[in-house]
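Morning F.,

Quick status update on the modeling queue. The single chain you submitted on Monday has been processed. Sequence for confirmation:
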Amino acid sequence: MDSQEVINILKEVDAFKEGHFLFSSGLHGEVYIQCAQLLKEPPLAEKVCRELAQHFRKDKPEIVVGPAIGGIIVAYEVARALGVPGIFTERVDGEVQLRRMFEIKPGQRVLVVEDVVTTGLSSQEVVNLIEKLGGVVVGVGSLVDRSNGKARLSVPFYSLVKINVNNYEPEECPLCKKGIPLVKPGSRR
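Structure tokens below.
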């Protein structure tokens, strides 16, 4: 499966949205990719996540971790394709944590996955947590990279699709200056 095939699937399920959006990173932009529209379709979720898993198979991850909410289904499907457990982190009082009796064993090889990366902040927070717990992060994977090459991650990063779109600091956002209503479609408050 190539990048264009993934883009076509995202378009078929109406996952591309245009307007004025506030991302979890705090940045603004005119294009939002709502991967939940893809992930709600089990055969499509399995197909794209299997492709992502294939890229990391050589790294021999022993567990897959995704940040809630966007990374939960991705982590599950990638883990299923790799034949390893899949878990997720949650935010408690703004801090990324493992809950629900999930654990990372010291020395365990961990793959972190997301639906969409804009700055890499959420993924890096998960990487930091895993390393603090003694895990060895083999990489970060995402379905979509909309960082324009600016994601800052301390481990190797791979995405099925790279989409170059405008991301704006709120004070520099031309959409705000035009008075276009801002929409917050993501999961982080």
